[in-house]
Amino acid sequence: RAKNRGGGQHCLFSEELALEYSRKVETETALTDAVQRGEFLLALQPQLSLLTGEITGAEALIRWNHPRDGVRAPATFIPIAEQTGIIGDIGDWVMAEVAALIASWNETGKRRKRLAFNVSPRQLDRADFFGRLRQCFGAAGVPLSQIELEFTESAAMECSAATLAEIAALRADGATIALDDFGTGYSNIARLRTLPIDRVKLDPSLIKDIESCDKARVIVQAVIHLVKGVGCEVVAEAVETVSQADILRAMGCDTVQGFVFAQPMFETEFVAWTNGADRGLKGAA
Ligand code: C2E
Ligand code: MG
Ligand code: MG
Ligand code: MG
């Protein structure tokens, strides 16, 4: 009996694997056309100063408006896009869309501070990524001071010297550089001193337990101290409660991004939210 059940489980397991594989192939095929079909959207999530409550910027987060499944989160397709190289085209689309958004905001006279977007390490494989980035924003009339590039900690640690020099040059020309998901990879703390970065984004896993756990607070306090000590700004990500925000403020964290203040929103809602926040919500932080 036990044997039979074991065999059954084995069979079920293979079916699951087969299903997962076929989903992956399906996603891969659909992704190839999704850029041309205009199926991607950017959701925008505000970032707020913990000191003043002001909106200091926003992060652009990709969504796939899938013809059958509806709006899909990046976790369901970005890893596949990275494995297959389709991330190159998707990344170019994100860049162009960010440039167009900022340009249109500038035109209406409501100049927003900065829009951040995520850059996958695989995008840097494509020839002349940095040249094309400069071309993209230059053609749209968007100064580099209005953009922020987010590289994950693990990606930054693997960057070649040539890539780091390109990033440093962008930064020298006004772009803001953020280290994303800090605290999840092999946090090479010594590298913090030499990487060309302005801000460090604390990974949600660091923040999750700060209300309930003394040790979690000690760790976050130490990381904030370290990051600020080397001259970088600290951004806390996925802040979900007012008390987390209060603790982070008391610890000297500069900026927060999280559901407690705002979800990622599509453009119309984002613009309305930021207009409202500029008028009256300043005290909310
Ligand atoms: P990330 O860059 O670390 O983005 C932050 C993620 O945290 C977003 O998930 C955001 O919706 C989520 N988040 C924000 N506030 C809260 C909160 O209070 N609670 C919780 N639980 N989550 C919160 P999202 O949009 O699903 O994106 C996931 C990841 O996908 C991103 O992590 C980033 O690594 C990747 N990604 C998103 N857009 C792009 C893109 O355009 N290009 C590339 N290469 N990767 C992207
Ligand atoms: Mg990010
Ligand atoms: Mg992150
Ligand atoms: Mg992430």
From TrEMBL:
Keywords: Membrane, Transmembrane, Transmembrane helix
Signal peptide: none
Residues in EAL domain copies: 24-278
Protein name: EAL domain-containing protein
Range within the parent protein: 276 to 560 of 560
